[in-house]
Amino acid sequence: MTELASATEVFQRVVRAVAERRQAEILDECYAEDVVVEHPFMVPEPTRSIGREQLRQRVASLRDLPIVMQVDETVVHQTTDPEVIVGEFTSHITSKLTGRQLTTANIMVLRVRDGMVVWSRDYHKHAVLAEFVKAQFQP
What we know:
The protein is α+β, with helices and mostly antiparallel strands.
């Protein structure tokens, strides 16, 4: 019998995929078919993706953003619920168009069951990220 990935291992895979800009490629191996992913700080309003296919549609557009990303300072906090972890990481983003750089802190609260994310609440600085991306296309 194959051992299922722990919540920490799944978080590490997800963060690595984010850094490598291949979120869409890992959906089937890391996210449950009925996953719920919430972004409370999304602009102009919070979002909720329900199901792997809706999440796939949302992340597909991210691949084409003209940025390079590195991730470090990854920390995982265990909770009293063995399915739930709080993961932190720092993103270092560089524009391919302007060379401008941005560093942001991120937090993801994940519920992982049977080696798959079944629920995630992702806290990113979406307003700052949106302004950064917008600025790349302005003269």
